[in-house]
Design brief:
Blueprint: H1 13-38, E1 42-48, E2 59-65, H2 68-86, E3 92-94, E4 101-106, E5 109-115, H3 116-122, H4 124-127, E6 132-136, E7 142-146
Parallel strand pairs: 2-5
Antiparallel strand pairs: 1-2, 1-6, 3-4, 4-5, 6-7
Amino acid sequence: MPDGNDPGFCETEIDCMNEKIKTETEILLDTIVSALQEKQGKDIVNIDLSVLDNPICNWFVICHGDSAPQVQALASWVEEYVERTLDIKLWRKQGLENSQWVILIYDDIVVHIFQKEFRNFYKLEDLWADGKLTQYLDTFESVKTSSSIPYERSK
């Protein structure tokens, strides 16, 4: 019989459900990052906001593209790739009209895709600096976790 010291043990059904949701969220997060990497999103980071009190969501994923068409392509590909890979539909998207800053909302993850100059202007990484930041390479691996800013700061 499992006991409370067993890492796979859940004391209540809600605990077990929360573990499942966490795993599904992590899979969704990885899938979103993979889609952005595949279409050459730049300076991809995620911010774990679950470490904060009362966050608006648990994760931000942030990247930028070099032009409005690339930002549109990144947003479209994330939506298509996630739906095709995980059968998860986007809850809401905004900003495709001018593609300076596109927001994609998936359950507990908000994806922000900027043009570089708008990313540097809004500095979401600075605004949410209390979260745990993870920076990604252009390939499929995570490189660094820190609270430092991985993109160039305006002076």
